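Q: Hi! First time asking for a complex rather than a single chain. Here are the components, and I think there are two in total. Is that enough to go on?
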Amino acid sequence: MKRWVDVAAPIVLLLVVFAIWETAVRWFDLPSYILPTPSRIVLAFFSHFVGLSQHAVVTFLEILLGFAIGGCAGFVLAIAVFYSPILERALYPLIIFSQMIPVFAIAPLLIVWMGYGLWPKATVAALIGFFPVVVNASDGLRAPTDESVELFRSLGATRWQIFWKLRLPASLPTLFSGLKVATTLSVVGATIGEWVGAHQGLGYLMLQSNALLRVDLVFAAILMLALLGLLLFGGLRIIERRMLRWRIPGREGE
Amino acid sequence: MARPWGGIRVEGVNKRFVHGGETIVALSSISFTADWGTWTTLIGPSGCGKTTLLRILAGLIPPDRGTVSIGDPQQMRRGTTAYLPQRDTLLSWRTALDNAILASEIARRPRAQARAEARELFAHFGLAGFEGHYPTQLSGGMRQRLALIRTFLAHRDVLLLDEPLGALDPLTRATLQDWLLSVWSELRKTILFVTHDVEEALLLSDRVLVLSERPASVQQDLVVELSRPRNRASVELAETKGRLLALLLGAR
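A: Yes, that's all I need. Here is the structure of the assembled complex.
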């Protein structure tokens, strides 16, 4: 019953919004190159599905690659910063500084350095995706109490065992929170990368369609992009649930 | 007691901490000994340094002055004792059974064997059927028992238990006291036990060391001469309790 409501509630809300949108556009007689109706967008989505999918594959690869690089780099940095106070002092201000630079400003440079292919987009995605992972994973590695660490030490645990059996599992919940934020940021990063310079991908398609006043196609590309983001997010949630089984309350008994 | 004498020997131990520019003397020339297989309880005002003493005995921090030896005086190192910290240290991502075998895992003993051993203890002490539960799914009393099982499964001769029965309702507490006594008499460990509860101290221990307010030193060394098994409601216990309380008030 509860699950049914969980699924139905957002769908109903979405349909209501679309209905208002649809009637408003028709009522005010807005031209479709300003704001197309939802029905028109859906129509464009399905009639151009093959083309959209081809661009989507390109963009999805960029997102995945950027997410993977950003996630790994973020986690490794968090561990390095945690274990080395000198690295922490050296790196932390730089990590924060890196987030103050607008990605739009460096994206053109990345195109110059890396060409028009997959890499500059993945790099932009990784550059903004790694930050929440560093911050969250650092918090997670610090999560175990002094008592827990002392318990391990009193049992003769090595530093490696304390990391592997205590800090790493303790950091997983916050690591996953960081990764989930990183998925959405990777989508943004890949799109920005494509806007700056590309000859394929959903971001490229958006710019092209916009120039041709095909706003319905712009929206269709946005829809596809959102679906890609959801796919990545959903996949991550499945992995999270598997790995963090203990956080699901009342799994056994009670 | 078939062993050559080793026991626990603490001699003139001092410990101070610098905290925020302020020096706190936690222990001031504290000395005592405890024989193998005996139960010694440390009792004293809160914050008097009992935990510091246990941490020194667990080999986690060195004393500033004085010596500590457990068993063979030549070999004082980490890993001769099993320490149960005061606060809950169960790992929430491990099932009850996997929490229990933590020490074996750290010592790289075969996992299957450790699990089988733990299962036996679970059955023995009323946790059977809860092996696959996560700590958050267990009641307070069960969590305490699990933490104790984990401590026993470290296979150390000396157990350092820092208020293992604190924060429990009276009934659970009484049950766990009986449970601890039965385990102790069965496995014959040397126990150093911290509590705030005078009755608990008298019910369980061979000896009670009354510590003074910080910096802690041994104020009174009381041998509990009540015969075992002891009765919570006995007149002798009540009398001794009265005397001990008076001592404690004097220690303030």
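A: Chain A has a mean pLDDT of 91. Let me know if you'd like any chain examined more closely.
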